[in-house]
Write a structure and sequence with these properties.
Distance between the termini: 68 Å
Strand order of the largest sheet: 1-2-5-4-3-6-7
Radius of gyration: 27 Å
Order of helices and strands: HHEEEEEEE
Helix content: 25-40%
Shape: elongated
Number of domains: 2
Amino acid sequence: MSKTAREQFTGRHMAAILIAFFAVVVVVNFIMARLAMSTFGGVVVENSYVASQHFNRWLDQASQEKALGWKAAATHRSDGRVEVTLAGVANEGAQVKAIARHPLGRLPDQFLAFTRGADGRFVSQQALPSERWRLRIEVRAGGTAWRTEEDVR
């Protein structure tokens, strides 16, 4: 084959290669950014300055609650309702409420109210969709408030 029959590598070829390369980079970056923004909004607290002012008080409350030795276990029942079993708490007169949050923020928060069953377990009045949820449980018993977080599937 002679040299005239072969294409020569020209500046147009190099420009096409560079444009294609950077087009791929831009498209991949756009897709990754779009996926990241659609799965997590990035808001942990509404106002970080205000949260920082309460941080030490929150730590003190957490250590007092931990000293109580209370425990909670949450399970998702087949009917969609959530069941909470308490340990170390005098169940008589105890009140349980919770906020169910979707870990990725895709679904709105669900407020759950619980009623005490005959076996001492607390069952939510509302059903949760069968997704993964993080429960922020609050138990009030004998004038004492206790909070914890549990994952429910």
